[in-house]
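Continuing the batch. This is chain 6 of the set; chains 1 through 5 are on the previous pages. Same settings as before, nothing changed between runs. Recording input and output for traceability.
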Amino acid sequence: MPSLISIRHPLAASHEQRSSLNRLPVPEFEETLERHGLGQLETGTIEVLQVNVGKLCNQTCAHCHVDAGPDRTENMTRETAEKVVELLRRYPIPTLDITGGAPELSPNFRWLVKQATSLGRHVIDRCNLTVLLIGSQNDLVDFLSEHGVEVIASLPSFRKTGTDAQRGDGVFDKSMEALRKLNAAGYGRKDGLVLSLVHNPVGAFLPGNQASLEKDYKRELASRHGIVFNNLYTITNMPISRYLEFLERSGNLERYMELLVGSFNPAAAESVMCRSYISVGWDGTLYDCDFNQMLEMPVGFGAPRTLSGLLESSDGLERKVVTARHCYGCTAGAGSSCAGAVEE
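Output for chain 6:
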């Protein structure tokens, strides 16, 4: 398993990360938006409610922006989960995107799935694949398929060396075993349950063309492992958390940030996911995106900062978006979101 940082107090860690980025000789993100005539980002129609149910995970990945791991104790309570469901009842948000940690390890994961699907919502499970092989999760694939849950699974590379370098020794082989279980249940097959994979680069560079990489993944996984899937999403590594520390240790932070700034794409900036997402932390705090959540940067500009506050408010879901230098990661090249590139 790769050598990893020790987990620090989240508030101290997020402050250190913002300070590291602020010391770099690159323009503020807001200045770049203004230079391109874009102005302050604002939300449109909210299409996705993304909920982080906790930081407990059976893996400890080198590039994890959540700092998740087996020793994390942060977990969403049933009371907060009930407020998530109440938000879905009150607003016609079509998709519930559940993430973690390994979200399946949360005691409220299955309850949330059942409640959301009973309300007619599409549910996404952000899965690390190896969790499907844990003894206590033997029936998880059946549960997911029974409720029509879309599985979006991380697989940094279709090669063993690339995946294991980022996610830990042996993770690739376990991921192949888990993908076969999903395929056997109907996932990834034509007219079946949706199975999408996520690629993010192992090194300090931008992901390649999403469509080309999808062809490569489908060819290699089918020919070498007999595995099929529906979609490949490419995601740029965000300069936060463990990946930020990797950049600092390897001396690549300034160069990587210059790459992101130099690759700024105005069209991608207009389509960033924070304009159609709202993110909920495990404790009920509201954020513009999952990355802001990990930097302890809640929604701002007077918008309600908690689920309770939002449910008590009559203002609706519209808001201005809180941005900072890490946002260059979502606007570089073809852009990046939890649903992959935002521009072909």
